[in-house]
């Protein structure tokens, strides 16, 4: 195929975002957390359909998860989490001094195996962290029923799922504690950033303070371009707030999501599936029919021990690929001799992530698929 600089993922940033940043730099002059962050939180709330007070913007998706876990657990509490996720899910739990308990995913949806999660519930279990893998929320109703049965909290790691829906309701518009990521390659970016959405007032108050070193009620002053001087602190906090610069980028990106980014991502996925769908060596992630997704990544399973040779072939032709993800229970920090997750471990041997971002063209997808089919049909 003709050589072209194809990217696995890419930040889609233009002059509109640059103008928004220039306005903060040259007109507003307040670069830290201020009014622009409050406006971004309001924009997110209006988009998802919740009260503005229920949205808290933070520095990253990882910090969103960390604060969510810390707000509802104590040291030594257990949080059940699928092993097939990015390291940040596990780090957020252990960073809050809780214990991540790795569990399986379903072989078809790659989302948390609810039956396996139930087997791992103990007297120390405080929460379940579900991961919306490749933007797929999985079986949320079933998961929340399990949580209710055992009086557990639910944290949704929705880093991949901003803009997605479950049963025609936006992710974040319902549920317990939902965490988003706005890093450079997500469905929308703020450069770096994240958000937490919850209607739990106690959790909200903890998180709003904790992002600002737990200076009590400092958020309200920051929105006004002020800060607290005579204050109290009663618990650990962090420098996890979002800046006005990043919020300005995020506000522009949010306006582009439904009219530009989402349709392109969905069209590219449809093309991949149409071109690769009949090959017996390829298995797609099953999307729950109750969900409407804006795909953040596109991963396929390559069967019959052909994954690694396909990786080599694509790399040779300058097609970047990824592996989302190495299971966390295989990492030294989280390894436990009693933990074996055969489904997850098998998926790890088969999975490969193909290029996906709004600047990828349909002919790029066609060329990538031609290479894949040529290699797998040999």
Characterise the protein shown here.
By secondary structure, the protein is an alpha/beta fold. It folds into two domains: 238 residues, Aspartate Aminotransferase, domain 2 (3-Layer(aba) Sandwich); 121 residues, Aspartate Aminotransferase, domain 1 (Alpha-Beta Complex), CATH 3.90.1150. It contains twelve helices and 13 strands. The longest helix is centred in the last third of the chain and has 33 residues. Helix 2 runs parallel beside helix 9, helix 3 packs across helix 7 and helix 10 crosses helix 12. The chain is 39% helix and 14% strand. The strands form three sheets. It has a seven-stranded mixed sheet with strand order 1-9-8-5-4-2-3, with helices on both faces. Strands 7-6-11 form a three-stranded antiparallel sheet, with no helix packed on it.
């Amino acid at each position: 195929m003709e050589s072209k600089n194809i990217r696995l993922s890419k930040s889609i940033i233009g002059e509109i975002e640059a103008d928004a940043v220039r306005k903060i730099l040259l007109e507003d002059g307040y670069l830290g957390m201020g009014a622009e962050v409050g406006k971004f939180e309001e924009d997110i709330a209006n988009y998802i359909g919740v009260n503005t007070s229920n949205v808290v913007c933070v520095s990253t998706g990882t910090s969103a998860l960390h604060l969510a876990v810390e707000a509802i657990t104590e040291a030594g509490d257990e949080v059940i989490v699928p092993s097939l996720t990015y390291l940040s899910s596990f780090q957020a739990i252990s960073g809050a001094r809780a214990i991540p308990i790795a569990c399986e995913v379903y072989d078809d949806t790659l989302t948390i195996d609810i039956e396996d999660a139930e087997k791992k519930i103990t007297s120390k279990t405080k929460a379940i962290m579900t991961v919306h893998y490749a933007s797929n929320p999985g079986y949320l109703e079933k998961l929340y029923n399990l949580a209710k049965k055992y009086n557990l909290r639910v944290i949704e790691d929705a880093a991949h799922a901003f803009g997605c829906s479950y049963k025609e309701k936006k992710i974040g518009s319902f549920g317990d504690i939902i965490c988003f990521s706005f890093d450079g390659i997500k469905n929308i970016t703020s450069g770096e950033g994240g958000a937490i959405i919850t209607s739990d007032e106690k959790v909200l108050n903890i998180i709003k303070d904790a992002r600002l070193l737990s200076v009590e009620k400092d958020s309200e002053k920051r929105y006004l371009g002020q800060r607290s001087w005579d204050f109290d602190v009663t618990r650990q906090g962090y420098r996890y707030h979002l800046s006005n610069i990043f919020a300005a980028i995020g506000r522009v990106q949010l306006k582009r999501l439904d009219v530009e980014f989402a349709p392109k991502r969905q069209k590219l996925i449809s093309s991949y599936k149409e071109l690769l769908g009949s090959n017996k060596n390829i298995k797609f992630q099953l999307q729950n029919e109750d969900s409407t997704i804006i795909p953040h990544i596109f991963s396929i399973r390559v069967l019959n021990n052909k994954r690694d040779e396909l990786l080599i072939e694509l790399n040779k032709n300058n097609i970047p690929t990824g592996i989302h993800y190495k299971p966390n229970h295989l990492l030294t920090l989280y390894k436990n001799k009693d933990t074996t997750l055969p489904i997850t471990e098998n998926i790890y041997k088969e999975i490969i992530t193909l290029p996906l971002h709004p600047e990828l063209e349909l002919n790029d997808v066609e060329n990538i698929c031609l290479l894949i089919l040529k290699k797998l049909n040999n």
